[in-house]
Amino acid sequence: MVKGLSAIALLVLLSGCVDAERVEETQADNVANNGATAAEQAMEPAVAAMRNARIAALDNQIRTMVGIPRADSLDQCKLAEVGKRACGGPEYYIAYSTQVTDEQAMQKLINEYTQLRVEHIQATQEMSTCEVIPRPQLTIENGICRATALSRM
């Protein structure tokens, strides 16, 4: 009877070691294959959702800060490059007026937005058509700064 209990205890002990080895091998395989553990992968959708929400909020803040870019002269009109596209170049251009927009505050928002876009592109391996968005020409119409496509001129 003692031999039987010893044999069972030995089997339980060995199976625990084998299971622990399997768990370690599985975790090592997950890290090697995906670069992240299961816990890290479970966090990725939450991180992506937070990043996307912040990108949307920053875009709204930038556009709100620009508002209606009223200016007395074309000298007060400026063009900002916002964001980053997967193949390079800005996501879009926005005309603003130095008369109504705090340039430093807006540039801070644009920098954060652009950095988050770069992180998003890298995390999602985003692809794009790689079309070039031509830099628009600044114009002033009825006291409002406008980014005008070159073809409209």
Describe the overall structure:
It is a single chain. Strands 1-2 form a two-stranded antiparallel ribbon. The protein contains three helices and four strands. With 153 residues, the chain is of the alpha+beta class. The radius of gyration is 28 Å and the shape is flat. A hairpin with a 2-residue loop joins β3 and β4. About 24% of the residues have low confidence.
Task: Give descriptors for this structure.
153 residues, alpha+beta, two-stranded antiparallel ribbon, 55% helix, 14% strand
Number of H- or I-type helical stretches = 3
Shape: flat
Largest sheet, if any?
2 strands, antiparallel
Count of distinct strands: 4
Mean pLDDT: 79
Fraction in helix: 40-55%
Distance between the termini: 98 Å
Question: Which percent band covers the strand fraction?
Answer: 5-15%
Structural class: alpha+beta
Low-confidence stretches: 5-40
Q: H/E series, N to C?
A: HHEEHEE
Gyration radius over CA: 28 Å
For the biggest β-sheet, the strand order reads 1-2
Short synopsis of the structure:
The protein is of the alpha+beta class. It contains 3 helices and 4 strands; from the N terminus they run ααββαββ.
Write the layout of secondary structure elements.
Elements: H1 2-34, H2 38-66, E1 77-82, E2 92-97, H3 103-124, E3 137-141, E4 144-148
Antiparallel strand pairs: 1-2, 3-4
Helix pairs in contact: 2-3
